[in-house]
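Before a computer can learn anything about folding, someone has to put a protein's shape into writing. The outcome of that step, for a single protein, is printed below:
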Amino acid sequence: MAANNSHLITVCSLLLLFVLPSMAVQPKYHHAPTTPQKKSDVVVEGVVYCQSCKYAGSWSLIGAKTIPSARVSVTCKNSRHQVSFYKAYQADKHGYFYAQLDGFKLSHGVLDHPLQACTVKLLSSPLATCNVRTNLNYGIDGAKLRSEGKVLRSPHYEAVIYAAGPLAFRPETCSNHHG
């Protein structure tokens, strides 16, 4: 009987060592290690040109030159066709604009997606010799965005970049369509 008691004591001791700690009350507030949130941006990029007089009225950019500091706008509308985002952007010295849509919100994943909801329009050209808006790529009506699969990634940042087709102004007067 003594052997059985010692065996019972050993089994109980093992139970106390392994089972009871796992049944212990866990702290009420358990804090998981926090990882920094990844910042995500939606970006629209494009280039603004001065269209050659020779090709005025067409969608050709042959002989076109970029317009430094040209201004464009990005407008996004929600699924109810209400403006949900609007901002003007200025192109750099090469006519290129990189428009971070700070504050843009998706309230409906498909209908409010930038490809369906956002357009880019020409606003102004700083060149007195080339300041008439053209509808090349719908720069007057609103150029739709397209996805080219561009994404910038880093450990704490991601930017999904959509493209607006090239946009263009033209000279007010074109003598003999040479230029």
Notes: The radius of gyration is 31 Å. Strands lie at 39-50, 65-66, 71-77, 83-90, 96-100, 118-124, 132-133, 143-154, 157-164, 167-170. The chain has a mean pLDDT of 82. The longest helix spans residues 2-23.
